Sequence to fold (394 residues):
Amino acid sequence: METEAARLIDYASRISRHHMEIANLTGELFNIFSILRMESSEVGTHSRLLAELLNPNGCHNLGDIFLKLFVEQLHIEPFDTKSANARAEVYIGRKTNESGGRLDILITDSASRKIVIENKIYAGDQENQLLRYWNYDKKAHLFYLTLHGDEPSETSTGGPIVGLPEKSYTCLSYDRDILSWLPKCRNEAAQLPILRETLTQYINLLKTLTDQNLTTKMNNALLDTVLNSRENLEGFFALTNVQDALYLRILDKLEVDLKTLAEKHNLALEYTLDRHSRWTGFFFRNDQLTQRNLKLGFEFQEKWTQNLEFGFQYVDLSLKHIAPSSLKSAFEDRFTAVQASDWWPCYTFWQEWRYWNHPQYKDLYFGTFVKSLEEKLAELIQIFSRAVSEEPNA
Fold:
């Protein structure tokens, strides 16, 4: 069995290298959205781009054709696409428990029929968010868009008692719904090369975000190899049986590497990382941080090592007052999209390492991540030192 598995890995590696060479020759690896880190922005880029495509008055100058394709695919009727207007980040009033907030995408036709899209490609649910948007217009077509069509949490829907009525919203996914609609749009833009290639690059970006970035030809080549013989198929199943153990082995090595890094910089390491759980990660402290009730935190908001945030975390909630008062402002001077919570005086998402999938685990094993982490720790310690120095009695 070990021989079959090793042979299969060798075949797969050769196929992968071959298609990487093709990608290099065709320029497929160049993606302007990735270069601009569009993966890191939900409303700021994805929602605005989608709204522009869905807007009959958009700068694509193709009228309502994209919106018409969208409405037809989702069986939204009646809806007058020719008279419609689409906007992103629409303010609907002061946020309360049951109303207000900001709609990611709002599409309205001349008869005041509405399509509301809540875009959750990254961020977690806000309290009563879908409930508030449903209350904005109970007749609107309300869609909850995520990478894989996930259901919203009770935090967003308001729970079973005061929450949304059954079937008052529809879940959409980037990996199926949006990636089915965009190629149709690209076909309509065939004679407009800049628009056509922009759509192609966005499609490729979404395939990357939804783990579909391997080409169909490469997938078929891999499948053909696996199914070429009984031995190859047995080798494939043997490999899939150890997939979870492989991830754990890589994380075991990471823990060892983090201990070495902590010792190098005289830091204490707290390691809680568990792929199967939310809110796990790794934390660092020294005497100066501990005296101010702080530790440097790197924590995943979701299971399967997804949504990595970093920043300063309190050690004891009852001692928040001894943390430097200017810590958040010092953090904001260095990082963007800074947030705070009960446990975190300031944090943000580590965009380059936000989602750990196959490429990230490869880099983990070969040490790339630890080098980046060492630089991040130095930045955080510098921010802490600055905040301490700015204290009135410093």
